[in-house]
Design brief:
Radius of gyration: 21 Å
Helix content: under 10%
CATH class: Mainly Beta
CATH architecture: 7 Propeller
């Protein structure tokens, strides 16, 4: 991977300040655009590789069997207008652990939008910064399927944050097999962060849109058949990002961070506003309940991207996650037409706990810690029941150099005490969402942190990427092994772990 330096001013970070690295494996058009989310650690790669027998330093755990998958934006064509990272074509990276060795593969998600653009040789659909064009997309913008990924019904499912169309991927080849349709469901749109309950195999899903019903919620069984779906009554269009679930309930989100439909209709732009005078509402519904059974709880105004876990304690339902009270920070002077996008991508959030009393309606809420962290994962065996530990990415704030979204350390929380330990990735080294990999045969009687935490990092000093494996009980001790990846892996969004027994039988 040959690299040269050119002196161009891009408002980016680390190795991009005052100039930008040129890569041989990235589309040349990015160098004509002054957008930090196209350069440095965000620069896309056009290479799709398959590589076996990867070099490992340290001791690869013999009982680590399965695969780490991560989705993220990787644009092929120059956008029609301003680029937002949600616009980048989805690319899935897979690191496979089996038979004492490690292999790697990456592939584009072959969405309908990408297929059309490959035929035309150019961008066709507009991106999330608009203007919206419903003549080329049912969403008005490009469904990139670049946000979320998880194992469900013997396949990987790839999803977009804006309740797009889910795609089915072959877990071994990463080839796209087409739309992921639930048997018995009339339409297919589904939001990222729909959830798989490992204890039952059920998929708890939701979607949302600009027309009534503004949200739907449903459940599908482990085989991909619809069990239940209901409309959820909301005051208007919303932008929920996640849901939670317990053994008996799902927790839905109605957040005071939404757009004005009149602006969308008149100007074809979705302009988000955080309404500080409107409470955040969480709706608790029986897992197979009807829309009129939702019980809404008013909480302090906030936005929440990601839930850690939820469970029941007697008459209480508990939800852990990361809360933001400033989802739209002020734009910085001098950032031009990208100022609001750059501000929105500077996540300000911290670990937080909500408690809802199903008998009295009482709400108790408060900080677990004040450190700026997000992109949370926990042990999926314990999803829906009481748990303590979660694994976050530390995100530098603007005054700490966090001009763009990036992950600089892995943080392990005890959410009952607020205590944490962390491992700093190192100067100029940026991480990916980490996943929990339980030991084979682990169950809810096992120690909650008995397993491994797996992530990927890219070093902007050398532009090399690695997969790191940690003992989940000792994050501060650093990785037990490092796997050298065959090329530079750009920044991405969400990741998942697929168990060996699911992948390999």
């Amino acid at each position: 991977m040959a690299m040269t330096q050119t002196v161009m001013e891009y408002p980016s970070t680390e190795q991009c300040i005052g100039g930008v690295t040129h890569f041989e494996d990235t589309p040349s058009w990015i160098y004509s655009l002054d957008n930090p989310y196209l350069h440095g650690v965000y620069a896309p790669t056009l290479d799709e590789l398959s590589s076996d027998g990867l070099e490992v330093t340290g001791e690869l755990p013999a009982d680590l069997v399965g695969a780490y998958f991560r989705n993220g934006p990787n644009p092929v064509h120059q956008p029609k207008n301003r680029y937002h990272p949600f616009d980048g074509d989805g690319m899935v990276h897979g690191v496979y652990f089996s038979d004492g060795g490690v292999s790697y593969r990456n592939r584009y998600v072959q969405t309908a939008a990408l297929d059309q653009e490959l035929r035309d040789g150019r961008s066709v659909s507009p991106g999330v910064m608009g203007p919206f064009d419903y003549s080329v997309s049912p969403f008005g913008i490009k469904d990139t399927s670049n946000t979320d990924i998880f194992w469900y019904a013997d396949s990987l499912m790839s999803l977009w944050y804006n309740a797009g169309h889910p795609y089915r991927l072959d877990s071994h080849s990463l080839e796209t097999r087409g739309f992921f349709d639930l048997a018995g469901r009339a339409q297919r749109r589904m939001s990222a962060h729909s959830k798989v309950d490992w204890s039952t195999g059920d998929l708890l899903f939701f979607d949302y849109g600009d027309e009534p019903p503004y949200m739907t919620y449903g459940v599908a069984d482990a085989a991909g058949r619809l069990r239940h779906e209901v409309a959820i009554d909301l005051p208007g269009p919303r932008l929920p990002h996640d849901i939670g679930f317990t053994t008996n309930y799902a927790i839905l989100h109605d957040l005071p961070f939404f757009h004005d439909m009149n602006v969308l209709r008149q100007h074809k732009l979705r302009v988000l506003t955080f309404h500080r005078d409107i409470p955040t509402r969480f709706g608790i519904i029986p897992r197979l309940g009807q829309g009129n059974e939702v019980r809404w709880f008013d909480c302090e105004p906030c936005y929440i991207l990601h839930v850690t876990n939820c469970w029941e304690e007697g008459e209480w339902v508990v939800m852990d996650g990361c809360r933001s009270v400033n989802p739209m920070p002020d734009a910085e002077v001098g950032e031009g037409e990208l100022a609001h996008m750059l501000a929105y991508m500077r996540l300000e959030a911290n670990a937080y706990r909500w408690r809802f009393n199903l008998r009295t309606g009482e709400v108790r809420e408060g900080d677990i810690d004040d450190l700026n962290t997000e992109f949370i994962k926990s042990n999926p065996i314990f999803h829906g029941v009481k748990s303590r530990y979660s694994y976050h990415q530390r995100i530098p704030l603007l005054h700490e150099g966090g001009h763009t979204l990036r992950f600089t350390a892995l943080v392990k929380y005890n959410n009952d005490t607020g205590q944490s330990t962390q491992w700093d990735y190192g100067p100029g080294v940026f991480g990916s969402e980490a996943v929990f990999a339980p030991r084979p045969g682990a169950d809810r009687d096992s120690r909650e942190d008995d397993g491994y935490v797996v992530t990927m990092v890219t070093d902007s000093n050398s532009w090399k990427s690695e997969c790191l494996v940690f003992d989940a009980a000792d994050i501060a001790g650093g990785p037990v092994c490092r796997v050298k990846l065959p090329h530079r892996v750009p920044f991405g969004f969400h990741a998942t772990w697929a168990r060996g027994e699911d992948l390999y039988g």
